[in-house]
Amino acid sequence: MIHYSLVCRQTHEFDGWFASSAAFDQQVASGLVECPVCADRGITRGLMAPNVPAKSNRRADVVAVAPSAPEPAQSVAVAGAAIPDQVRSALQKIRAEIERNADYVGPDFADEARRIHNGESDRRAIYGEATPEQAEALADDGIAVAQIPWVSRADS
Ligand SMILES: [Zn+2]
Predict the structure, then answer these.
(1) Is-contact 125 94, C-beta < 8 A?
(2) What is the Å distance from ligand 1's center to 23 Cα?
(3) Which pLDDT does position 100 carry in this prediction?
(4) Same domain (yes/no): 73, 129
(5) Which of 12, 29, 63, 84 could be cross-linked to 37 through a Cys-Cys bond (beta carbons 3.0 to 4.6 Å apart)?
(6) Tell me, what's the pLDDT at 70?
(7) How far, in Å, CA of 86 to CA of 51, rounded?
(8) CA 45 to ligand 1 center in whole angstroms
(9) Are residues 70 and 143 in the same domain?
(10) Is 61 helix (H, G, I), strand (E, B) or coil?
(11) What is the CA(42)–ligand 1 centre distance, in A?
């Protein structure tokens, strides 16, 4: 199997596995390869470079719980400016729990969440950064993600 980094005409990047480069060419020509985000079939091979940062530099901290997780991730939303002490304390506990139980994957979050969803990576909880657009695309694909306000640690 050959692993290709693929990109659609809307510049969504995703991964594909093919028996050979000829099989890849043939499947694309037959319209069998489509973008998981927008279903575009104008697929070309992307650069085999490490993930480049997403176009947007607006980043939110996102945690994903793999589909096998017993409970769905809880989403928390509070006004950023004045977080009440009790809420801050609760968020610090959430952060500590996430750091203890999930793997940090940094900006690779969206790709890794999709790999887990597709069974290409070990099922586990992960956390890292994603743009709002990436988080929305994951949610559209039925991948559970939650955005958590990332408060400073209790001991810092
Ligand atoms: Zn696309």
Answers:
(1) no
(2) 21
(3) 85
(4) yes
(5) 12
(6) 37
(7) 38
(8) 13
(9) yes
(10) strand
(11) 9
Q: What is the pLDDT of residue 47?
A: 60
Position 52 in a domain? no
What pLDDT shows up at residue 38?
A: 95
Tokens describing residue 8? 């659609």
> What domain range includes position 137?
60-147
Please tell me the distance between residue 39's alpha carbon and the centre of ligand 1 in angstroms: 6
Same domain? For 84 and 143 the reply is yes
Say how many Å lie between the CA of residue 76 and the centre of ligand 1. Answer: 29
Between these two residues, 68 and 47, which has the higher pLDDT value? Answer: 47
Q: Are residues 80 and 6 in the same domain?
A: no
Contacts of 128 (CB under 8 A, 6+ apart): 61, 62, 104, 105, 106, 107, 108, 109, 112
Number of domains in the chain: 2
Predicted confidence at residue 41, as pLDDT, reads 92
Strand bridging mode 103-106 / 126-130: parallel
Q: Say whether both 65 and 39 belong to one domain.
A: no
Is 81 a domain residue?
A: yes
Residues 64 and 137 in one domain: yes
If asked whether residues 68 and 21 sit together in one domain, one would say no
Condensed to tens digits (0 to 9), the pLDDT of residues 92-134 reads: 887 888 888 888 888 888 888 888 888 888 888 888 888 778 8
Looking at the fold, whether 71 and 143 belong to one and the same domain comes out as yes
> In this predicted structure, what is the pLDDT of residue 9?
92
